[in-house]
Every structure is written in C-alpha cells, then in structure tokens.
C-alpha cells in the first residue's frame, strides 16, 4: 500500500495507527510541514497587509454583518442535519449545532463577521491598488513614481 493510501486510511479511521509505516509517517510529516509553511506565508502576507490599518473598522464589520444577515434570510436549511456537527466558539470551546444556545450562535456569527471584515478590508486594499495602478498607467505599484 502506498504511503498516501495508508495515511488516507488512518485519516478515515480518525486515529494514528501504532503500526504505521515509516514511509507513511514521513509522508504525514512532510504534508504537515508543507501546511505549516503555507500557514506562515499567509500569516506573514496578512500581517503585511494589515500593517496599513490598526483595527477592523466598524464599517467593515457592519458590512460583513449586513451581508451575513441578508444571506441568512434566503437560506433553506435542513437543521436536523446540522445537529451533531461541531463548531468552535470565540473562547475556544466547542459545541454542537443541536446543543448551542442562541447566545453561542450569536457569538460565533460575530466572530466570523469580524474575520470576514478583515477579508473585506484586504480586498478593498487590493481594489484600491488596482485603481492606483490604472490611474497612473503602470503595470505595478512599484512602477509608480511616488516621490
């Protein structure tokens, strides 16, 4: 069995086999390390982009909340299908959809809206860069003379 198939089998079983082959363990370590590198690169890129602002703006959070509320009004949900699904709360605790209180759903929604606000602000930053490049007739921001 290939290392990839062996790892897939362990993932499906939900546990690390005590008899996992060295090849499978190396495969998992390499995938984990690659994932960590990607996460670090994304974190560093976000850190650089977020350096132009101090906090999530109230305007961006309100826009995210408005979008989520509008979208929620149009959802058709099979609620019982979600009952045993787990989600994380802002404090790191976990709860199932079926057991979560209205306050817990509100806390999760607010947390996600704040996260979405960051994406909205970053998208706006990139949109502003596109406009700046177009306004100056260049191909890149680096090619614009800001002196």
Task: Report the count of strand segments.
Answer: 2
* Largest sheet, spatial ordering of strands: 1-2
Shape field: flat
Structural class: mainly alpha
Count of helix runs: 5
Uncertain regions spanning at least 5 consecutive residues: none
Mean pLDDT: 87
Question: Percent range for helical residues?
Answer: 55-70%
Report the major sheet: 2 strands, antiparallel
What count of domains describes the coordinates?
2
User: Strand content of the residues, in percent?
Assistant: under 5%
Distance between the termini: 62 Å
Taken in chain order, the helices and strands follow as: HHHHEEH
Q: Measured on Cα atoms, how large is the radius of gyration? A: 22 Å
Brief digest:
With 147 residues, the protein is mainly alpha-helical. 65% of the residues lie in helices and 4% in strands. The chain has 2 domains: 1-51; 57-147, no CATH class.
Write up this protein.
The protein has 147 residues and is mostly helical. It has 2 domains: 1-51; 57-147, no CATH class. It is built from 5 helices and 2 strands. It has helices spanning 3-13, 22-50, 58-73, 79-82, 102-136, and strands at 86-88, 94-96. It has a two-stranded antiparallel ribbon. The longest helix is centred in the last third of the chain and has 35 residues, at 102-136. The radius of gyration is 22 Å and the shape is flat. It starts with a helix and ends in an 11-residue tail after the last helix.
């Amino acid at each position: 069995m290939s290392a990839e198939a062996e790892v897939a089998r362990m993932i499906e079983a939900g546990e690390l086999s005590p008899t996992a082959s060295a090849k499978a363990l190396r495969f998992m370590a390499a995938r984990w390390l690659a994932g960590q590198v990607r996460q670090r690169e994304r974190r560093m890129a976000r850190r650089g982009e977020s350096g132009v602002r101090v906090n999530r703006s109230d305007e961006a959070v309100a826009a995210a909340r408005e979008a989520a509320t509008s979208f929620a009004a149009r959802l058709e949900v099979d609620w019982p299908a979600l009952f045993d699904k787990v989600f994380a709360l802002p404090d790191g605790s976990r709860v199932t959809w079926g057991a979560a209180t209205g306050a817990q759903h509100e806390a999760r929604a607010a947390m996600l809206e704040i996260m979405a606000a960051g994406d909205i602000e970053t998208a706006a930053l990139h949109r502003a860069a596109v406009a700046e490049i177009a306004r100056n007739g260049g191909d890149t921001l680096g090619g614009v003379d800001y002196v």
